[in-house]
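hey so i finally got around to running the thing on that chain from the lab meeting. sorry it took forever, my laptop kept dying and i had to restart like 3 times. anyway pasting the input first so we r on the same page abt which one it is
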Amino acid sequence: MTSLVITGSHLTPAEALIEQLPKSWRVHKLGSVGGPKFKRYDWWGSLWGLVKLPGLICQAKSTLQLIKAKVVISFGGYSSVPVCLAAKILKIPLLIHEQTFAAGLASKITGRVADIIAISWKSSRGYFPRQKTVLTGNPVRREILRVKRIPRPVIYIGD
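ok and heres what got predicted. didnt touch it at all, straight out
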């Protein structure tokens, strides 16, 4: 059985991808609920996040070994960084997906070690090594594709 790990904070495209995977695959979601955000004006918080990173990489490494992950797919965000770095240490194939026009810090970091980088927009291409980057677009959930027409509400102003 193929064991796949999804990590990161962009959950909507991650869920869309999961819908397309074979049902026989075991999918694990790894990350944190409220990981810190690196902000220029909060350097103490950012420093603390960096101090915790080695321990988080060790935790992620143990978890990836425990679940026998065959591939890791990242959807950006702070919580994805230790999982992606642990995957590379363990030589597990790593794919990252960047959904935005401009890559975030986590994607810039993990893009350096990723085997494949999928992007939604051509404008993201400049943030990553060209030879590893593929323009794929953004995964969309099936339920979105099934919507026929959304009725528009009628708004009356005045009498």
